[in-house]
Amino acid sequence: MLHAVPSVTQPDHAREFLYSVLENAEVGVVVIDAAMRPLYVNASARHLLDAPSGTIPEWLTSALPPLRAQLDRSAQAVDRVCYGDLTLRVRLRALSQPGVAMLELTVAQAGGARQLAEQLARGLTLSTADAQLLALLWRGLSNEEIAQALTVRTGTIKSRLFRLYQKLGVKKRPAAVLRAAEVLGHQQAPLEAQAA
């Protein structure tokens, strides 16, 4: 895990290496300063926030002060932030550099499962069953919750997930969710437009 933001005293190659690791992370990563301005926003976070320039949208910045206050009392702060049909799980952790913190962003829920499944089936050329499974992953359900929703055993879900990951060319759940995010990002209106 990341323990510090690169400082100016670190060699350039070490800083570049750290940023390349962060840039390719499957989870959205935003490093912010004490004034809650972004110092770094990785590709996953830019995609989730629909912010190609790396800015943090106001709907997220307005949720940060309570998280920052909670962070002052403990090692981390976790909350869910809703915007339109999107619900993000936001985890804020302090870094070793004073005033600097890291936001980890993951999708907790987005839209209705049926609508998502239809979009995913078209966008990724998946069967209806695979698209439904991916939509439930996108919504943040655990294997057990997916099994209950589909009225099958948890072992069946594990097998189906393994085959779905192979079809998507990924190895883990976060990467599958990012594949879904790529499709849904192109087929849904930008987040700013959803709020209007």
Structure description:
This protein is of the alpha+beta class and 196 residues long. The protein folds into 2 domains: 12-108, Beta-Lactamase, CATH 3.30.450; 113-195, Winged helix-like DNA-binding domain superfamily/Winged helix DNA-binding domain (Arc Repressor Mutant, subunit A, Orthogonal Bundle), CATH 1.10.10.10. 50% of the residues lie in helices and 18% in strands. The protein has helices at 12-23, 43-48, 58-61, 64-73, 113-124, 128-138, 143-150, 154-168, 173-187, 191-195; strands at residues 28-32, 38-41, 76-83, 86-94, 101-110. A hairpin with a 5-residue loop joins strand 1 and strand 2 (38-41). The model is unreliable at 1-6 and 186-196 (pLDDT under 50).
Brief digest:
The chain is an alpha+beta fold and about 200 residues long.
Count of alpha and pi helical runs: 10
Helix content: 40-55%
Q: Which class do the helix and strand fractions yield?
A: alpha+beta
| CATH class value of the largest domain | Alpha Beta
Largest sheet report: 5 strands, antiparallel
Measured by DSSP, the beta-strand proportion falls in 15-25%
Strand order of the largest sheet: 2-1-5-4-3
Average predicted local confidence, pLDDT: 79
First CA to last CA: what distance?
37 Å
State the total count of DSSP E strands: 5
CATH superfamily of the largest domain: PAS domain
**Can you tell me the CATH architecture of the largest domain?**
2-Layer Sandwich
Radius of gyration: 18 Å
List the domain count as a whole number: 2
Shape: globular
